[in-house]
Queue: 2 jobs
Job 1
Amino acid sequence: MSKKPTPKKRASHAQTYRRYKTFARKTQKRLFNAASLSVCPKCREKRLSHAACPACGDYRGRSVINFSKKIDKITKVKA
């Protein structure tokens, strides 16, 4: 196992601070863009951008998820 080299001189406060702030800025940017929510124009519920609304099933002005089919399948029970 190789040993890591030791620094010749002490790193200044500005150099340490700059290294930390660069890392922090990248992390904040990544976390901020992780999940962007928007408002559904039909039902005003929060939903993910570029995805169908989980409450009403609309996407870009048209219905893409039909909730009545899911309800029919669940309510019909064979005895």
Job 2
Amino acid sequence: MAKIAIIKTGGKQYKVSQDQVLKIEKINAEPGASLKFQTLLVADEAKMELGKPVLGELVEGQIVEQGRKDKVSVIKFKNKTRYKRNVGHRQPFTKVKITKI
């Protein structure tokens, strides 16, 4: 079992391991910039450390890419009243590679 951690960013929690690439909520920074994440739990084969509520900023990552997800169509329609509304949304994201736990 490799070393794993649970981090908190963007109002969500993620289970990560070293060299993992994941998409998180958008962070305003350039690709190549390094980040530190609030760590809630760190575990490996021998022991587990649990924060009360956090351990600190033990996990580091590097921004790989900034982007936007595929378009989601939100359609409102009311029958027999000639009402139709179509709105699109593309959620921004940041792709991060975990470099150190």
